[in-house]
Design a protein that fits this description.
302 residues, alpha+beta, five-stranded antiparallel β-sheet, 5 helices
Length: 302
């Protein structure tokens, strides 16, 4: 009996000295995304209030917050750190998730388009949340040989296929959807000042995601020796949806998507919350062979 007690004690000591696996630690310290959003909101509201109280803060000028966030997200000339400082100066704070708690996903792209995971930001002035997405072309593979058979003139516009679609898909959502989309903003551009904008959301009601559709096009700016030089409005794309304060209690994973059409392809619709589909997004396209496969960013949490 004494010998058995010694054996049991030895096993207990060995077990207690064994290292704890990282996966077990992570389970014990599961990241609470809703708590993180509440803390960000409280911190942002407190900072803005204190700045106003000390008169060291001037009320921000009349701005369109979703437009500001979209344009900063879409501006490759500004670092993420500088973009966040500009947002803070306007009472808008970005939700940053520790890397170890981000979904272990890898973006699905063709190497032609660069896309970043969505931004989740809180606007302390309006007590609203903004979800932002977008991306840009890194090469000219969007062209589908536009200039080769185009006997254009300066100022002429030529559509590139049908409309392109981009937006955000929500997956792994929990909690009751008590929030709603209040406003939207989206844009496409050539990155050189030519831009198309809209305040209208094209796809989705916001619960499982949202999307925008734009007709991308080439615009001739010079003709020389029978060669057409053009700029592509659609090279850069981005958009945001603004949710009310109850978005704080809604959580899940958010993923940016993009679908490019050319030639005879036509994007008819985008569905959200579809089981078995990346980002829960499914596309209906006529002449789908004349479109790029869907491109997705990494996931983020909200």
């Amino acid at each position: 009996m004494k010998k058995l007690s010694i054996i049991i004690l030895s096993i207990a000591l060995i077990t207690s000295s064994m290292p704890v696996l990282a996966s077990e630690t992570k389970k014990e310290h599961k990241f609470d995304i809703v708590k993180a959003k509440i803390e960000l909101k409280e911190m942002a509201d407190r900072e803005v209030y204190n700045l106003k109280k000390t008169n060291s803060y001037s009320i921000r000028k009349e701005i369109n917050p979703e437009k500001l966030v979209t344009q900063l997200y879409n501006n490759q000339k500004i670092s993420s750190k500088d973009a966040e400082e500009i947002l803070k100066a306007n009472g808008i704070y970005k939700l940053n998730i520790p890397k170890e708690y981000l979904p272990a996903t890898k973006s699905m792209d063709t190497g032609d388009v660069s896309m970043t995971e969505p931004w989740i930001t809180y606007d302390s002035h309006n007590n609203e949340w903004i979800v932002t997405c977008g991306g840009y072309w890194e090469n000219a593979d969007y062209s589908d040989g536009i200039g080769k058979l185009w006997a254009g003139y300066v100022g002429e516009i030529k559509n590139v296929g049908g409309r392109d679609g981009f937006g955000v898909g929500f997956t792994s959502t929990t909690g009751t959807y008590k929030t709603y989309v209040k406003r939207s903003y989206a844009q496409i551009s050539d990155g050189e000042g030519n831009i198309e904008t809209t305040d209208n959301r094209t796809d989705g009601n916001g619960e499982k995601g949202f999307g925008f559709q734009f007709q991308d096009y080439a615009k001739c700016y010079k003709v020389e020796l029978a060669k057409v030089y053009y700029t592509y409005i659609g090279k850069h794309f981005g958009g945001s949806c603004v949710y009310d304060k109850n978005f704080t209690e809604y959580d899940g994973c958010a993923t940016t998507y993009y679908r490019h059409t050319y030639n005879k392809a036509k994007l008819n619709s985008v569905s959200f919350g579809v089981s078995g589909k990346t980002a829960g997004v499914e596309f209906s396209i006529t002449n789908e062979q004349y479109s790029l496969p869907p491109i997705f960013s990494n996931d983020t949490r909200f």
